[in-house]
Amino acid sequence: MIERAVRSGGALLFFLLAFALPATANAQAYQCRMPASIAVPQVRPDAPARQLPVTGYTLAISWSPEFCKGREGQARHRTQCSGRNGRFGFVVHGLWPESRGSWPQWCPTAGRLTPAETRRNMCMSPSAALLARQWAKHGSCMTRRPDTYFKVTRILWDSLRFPEMERLSREDELTAGRLRERFVAANKGWRADAVGLKLNRRGWLHEIRLCYDKRFRPTRCDAARYGAKDGAQLKIWRGL
Length: 240
What we know:
240 residues; Ribonuclease Rh, Chain A; four-stranded antiparallel sheet; globular
């Protein structure tokens, strides 16, 4: 059972390494530079614990230029948005377990995220606070160890290719469906109905949400994760 594999950690990693798409050079973080030491913030639950059976997963990938618009000078977003630590394209928001229209969260765990593990993942998710929260809220419901949770996340992340976003952003009458088509064309084995898109109220790309089944294979997103329909007009902020 995949649930047992997730809890045991090692079996899950063996499965993913055997079946994940070939790793590719990730060009989403440009000149990523992280400090030698990083503090891990304490995270407190902001909602009740919810222990539910895991039926699938979502890998949420944020478009950093859109997220950083107006946040460039904010101290808590300095690593991602100031430009001092590099320039980011797509970054991982989090890997989220799902449970039949709901989701487990804030599961009790003795696992503690270390500064070394946090730093290892900062070019993928350039915020110590974000990494700490993702482990405490979501990863704790998948596995006992934060290093296992983030290694699974990295395997999925490193298996992905992305369209040329700057070129795509300049296309006339760009739609959500066209971005889905380009993503699927770049990633063998993916299907358009497994690629969710979150746009803001003005139609700017905020996030890609990739839907996986229990075996970490692409699967059809439900309506909430699928988000913008194919015909929706789409704009992509380039950070200029």
